[in-house]
Amino acid sequence: MKKLIILFLSLAFTLGVHCQSSDNFYNRGMANSKDAQYGDAIEDFSMAIGFNPKNKKAYNQRGVAKQQVGDIKGALEDFTKALDLDPLFASAYINKRLALGTLNNYYGRIAKWTKAIEADPTDFAAYNNRGIAKLGIKDYTGAINDFGKTIELNPEVSTAYNNRGAAKENKKDFTGAMADYSKAIEIDPKFSKAYYNRAVLLLTIGTKDDACRDFSHASELGDEDASKKVQSLCQ
């Protein structure tokens, strides 16, 4: 009997620690979301879910953070999971409806720009815009093809290189992504987003000093997210 009591107390203690850890990561995720550090927030909410798979709020907020980084499908999965845990969770229900609207909007944009391309196959802007919509639904291969066609028709479109770099980075083609970000900067030396994206990639592959230089360039060009990175990582 004593062994059973000890086992019960041990399990209760373990569950309590897990719930507390889940809450701690959830709270940190909320703080990161408030600071627009959505990548870090997603990691924190994932840890919260790991400690407590029934943490509906963590699923919901991870979905919100995923929306902010353009992962609409991933957001929908999280909102759906939150509703599986609590079908009356109003916030998750509203967020899911909004995400569905966004996803349908991306498909609508793809259809719109496809018609434009059919009407004028030399419309490089239409290819670029369709590529952006494909990024929204995580069709990275399709996006790369569209941005490549944009560049073929007009090699001076810096945004096409930057956007293709983002698609390649998501496919783990870091070498190709680096080349595209650098080309975007070569074409437009004041392209703050390209500096920022290259900095994030440099950080990913472990070259912090180079990343900080790019964050600093982006910050000087007015990128607020880059300014936050300089303050948190490069001081």
What do these coordinates show?
The chain has 235 residues and is mainly α. It has 3 domains: 19-105, Tetratricopeptide repeat domain (Serine Threonine Protein Phosphatase 5, Tetratricopeptide repeat, Alpha Horseshoe); 120-188, Tetratricopeptide repeat domain (Serine Threonine Protein Phosphatase 5, Tetratricopeptide repeat, Alpha Horseshoe); 190-235, no CATH class. It is built from 12 helices and no strands. It has helices at 2-34, 38-51, 56-68, 72-85, 90-119, 124-136, 140-153, 158-170, 174-187, 192-204, 208-220, 224-233. The longest helix is centred in the first third of the chain and has 33 residues, at 2-34. It is flat, with a radius of gyration of 22 Å.
The percentage of residues in β strands lies in under 5%
Overall pLDDT metric:
89
Which fold name corresponds to the CATH topology of the largest domain? Answer: Serine Threonine Protein Phosphatase 5, Tetratricopeptide repeat
Low-confidence stretches: 4-15
Described by strand count, sense and barrel closure, the largest sheet is:
none
Q: Helical proportion?
A: over 70%
Silhouette: flat
The CATH class of the largest domain: Mainly Alpha
The count of domains is 3
**How far from one another are the termini?**
58 Å
What's the total helix number?
A: 12
Query: In total, how many beta strands?
Result: 0
